[in-house]
Amino acid sequence: MWSSSFLASPHFSSPPKLSPLSSSSSSHRHKIQTFLCFTQNPSSTVGVSFSKRHLNLSILTLLFNGGFLLDKAKSMAESGDLQRYTDSKDGFTLLVPSSWTKVEKAGANALFEEPEKRSNNIGVVVSPVRIKSLEDFGTPQFVADKLITAEKRKESTKEAEVVSVGERLGQGQGQVYEFEYKIDSTRGGIKRVFSAAFVSSKKLYILNVVHSDSPENPLDSSTRVLLEQVLHSFDALPLT
């Protein structure tokens, strides 16, 4: 998991000069694109018909599952599985599972743990920085690369890989970077990590959502939806 020192250290106090991610890139802003490839066999009309039918069924399945998971996530929030936590002093807010317990820990501005398994937790760290926004530091992909490099340098890390990188506009009109990655370490085994970060009023806000994801007990879809809701809810409080 990344800490405030990742961006707040003197080494990263000023934005680095970035080079394009590829020779064809004309912008430093990372964009996630999804491509659906469909190959037809012109010599076989039966094969084409079957492929189209299979494709249509796949699309319907994806739409159904996506809508189901979205509805389930909304019902979780509405039924009380998630509750709003707001820190007026440090200026941030997020949703947390109502059954998780808030605990005190040095270095964390807020920390919530699952009672049955305390290694599953949600933590927030707030630290002062010199940059005005995350864009001053780099693109989401640039930060993700730095993040995973830092994870791999830890002695306890056996393997680490980025799963997804994205960004969204926060309610304070600042960019929020979001990351998902997996870590296999000697401390706790395989874990799934959802992270988010933003800069507001010269402060760096970092969220880490950590959950076990071992082959014997993989992260189930309902829990994943719940944790993603937590990730997407992390934001700065409106300036008054």
TrEMBL record:
This is PsbP C-terminal domain-containing protein. PANTHER family: PSBP DOMAIN-CONTAINING PROTEIN 2, CHLOROPLASTIC, PTHR31407. Residues 81-235 form the PsbP C-terminal domain. Residues 1-25 are annotated as: Disordered. GO terms for cellular component: extrinsic component of membrane; photosystem II oxygen evolving complex. InterPro entries: Mog1/PsbP_a/b/a-sand, PsbP_C. GO terms for molecular function: calcium ion binding. One of its GO terms (biological process) is photosynthesis.
